[in-house]
Design goal:
Helix content is about 40%, strand content about 25%. The protein has a 4-stranded antiparallel β-sheet with strand order 1-2-4-3.
Length: about 260
Amino acid sequence: MKARNLPFSLAYFRKRGFLRLLAYETGVHLGDGCMSEKYYACENWRINRYIQYTGDLVNEKSYYETVLQPILKKLYNVDLSIRSIERDHTCVIFTRQKDIFEFKKRLQLPIGRKIHVQIPPFIKGKLQKDFLRGFADTDFGLTFKNRKKTGRSYPVISFKTSDKIILIQLAMLLQKLKFKVNTYFNCKFKHEKSKKGYYISNVLQLSGKHSLEKWIHVIGFWSPKHLTKYLLLKAIGSCPIRTTTEERCKVLKDLGIE
């Protein structure tokens, strides 16, 4: 279904009280989204433009269904279906809506490969927390290291990227919010499919229970992938490794936690 021809602008979203939701969705876009615009020469020049959000089919489809899809409907008044692509293990939301595309261009979101990505200028003040939540829901990881002495799980919130600019900007935002942030640059990670056997990336980390609790209270998660891990940590003191979002939801349900 096509969206209505609405004059999308920051003023439009501010008037409707959706500016914070837009900041969240912008974070999601920089995490899971991409835009493409290509021109083809024919009798009349043809433009192929689209916006696409891509997530993990196993662990993120519930997030796409319950969070992202309704947000896109609320912001842009458009019904977008979710496609499951089994061969790639991905779920996809896709649109060619010109008015949404042109608005995102005006927000200075990247077209094509996400290289030298920067946080859009309108992300200021209170909007920074909403943006961080959207970005983290889609592109951050929440993992746990087992402490042998205590037997408890040590949480680590992390972000890994080849792009130093966005990592530095995210670190600066988090430091403004009084988070203790660790950054590591040009780190080697094993990669069996690479000719060199490794790849180079940059890492941002927030470590420890205090950082996780502060994240929950200051920024929060909307993604079931992260939330189920946190709730299990609170309930039983650990989070089973290599479990899916669905499996963790079942454990929480059995514990009487919805």
